[in-house]
Design goal:
Helix content is about 35%, strand content about 30%. By secondary structure, the chain is α/β, with parallel strands linked by helices. It has a single domain, classed as Nucleoside phosphorylase domain (Rossmann fold), CATH 3.40.50.1580. Helix 2 packs parallel to helix 6 and helix 4 packs across helix 8. It is globular. The chain binds 1-O-phosphono-alpha-D-ribofuranose and uracil. The site of uracil (URA) has 10 residues, from strand 5, strand 8 and strand 9.
């Protein structure tokens, strides 16, 4: 067991899909994996391992925000020998042409977090980026499917309920597609541990249009991004 994951060595696959919502993790395991077994219920942050088309895959909830996601990412990479993590999350659109239920694949993640400012002692504005092989595979797979997928920069924010939308407006002017809360930390830690990482999100909200999907749909209906992720990691 690591500090926050109740798995024995070997119970977690080298490839992990990581939603923020632990109940989305359960739904993904039950819906897409064969023979899925739960390896951790610590803090109800569920983790499962099963098979997808003959490949061993784990699904681990990360919780919301970079502090929580960093804990699970660190333990997966440092203590369980995980080599590949794909975040399968929800995100809020900040672009007119990025609509609710579209899929967004994050090339890189801008952030308002001070985590990397502290990590690099204020000397570097580090650019957290996805693994190129995973990114190109996911983009190609998505292009061959129905539904709209956008590939570009996302913003990992520490704040869900901010005082103003000014920063999001500015980020949108500079091409950022959508806002979520984990990718920058995931990409940074994957680089540190020489692992592969990618973030695929489904748009659950439009931040400027006041559109939002309810919790049950965020939990159980984002199958397109899950299939894109599973096909990309098993290529
Ligand atoms: O749906 P998940 O994967 O949790 O992702 C998004 O949803 C949460 C906020 O509601 C944050 O974790 C954000 O990144
Ligand atoms: O608006 C949103 C929607 C999902 N996730 C976020 O972080 N923000």
């Amino acid at each position: 067991m690591s500090h926050h994951i109740g798995a024995e060595p070997g119970q977690i696959a080298e490839t992990v899909l990581m939603p923020g919502d632990p109940l989305r993790a359960k739904w993904i395991a039950e819906t897409f994996l064969e023979g899925a077994e739960c390896y951790s219920t610590v803090r109800n942050m569920f983790g499962f391992t099963g098979q997808y088309k003959g490949h061993r895959i784990s699904i681990q909830g990360s919780g919301m925000g970079m502090p929580s996601a960093s804990i699970y990412t660190h333990e997966l990479l440092a203590e369980y020998g995980v080599k590949t993590i794909v975040r399968v999350g929800s995100a809020g659109s900040i672009q007119d042409d990025v609509n609710v239920r579209d899929v967004v694949i994050g090339i890189g993640a801008a952030t308002d977090s001070s985590m990397n400012t502290n990590r690099f002692a204020g000397q570097l504005s580090y650019a957290p980026v996805a693994d190129y092989g995973l990114l190109s595979a996911a983009a190609e797979i998505a292009a061959g499917r129905e539904g709209t997928t956008h590939v570009g920069q996302i913003l990992s924010s520490d704040v869900f309920y901010g005082d103003s939308l000014d920063t999001y407006k500015k980020a949108a002017e500079y091409g950022v597609l959508a806002v979520e809360m984990e990718a920058a930390a995931l990409y940074t830690l994957a680089a540190k541990f020489k692992a592969r990482a990618l973030t695929i999100c489904t748009i659950s909200d439009h931040i400027f249009k006041n559109e939002a999907l309810p919790a049950d749909q965020r939990e159980r209906t984002f199958g397109d991004m899950v299939e894109i992720a599973l096909e990309a990691v098993t290529r």
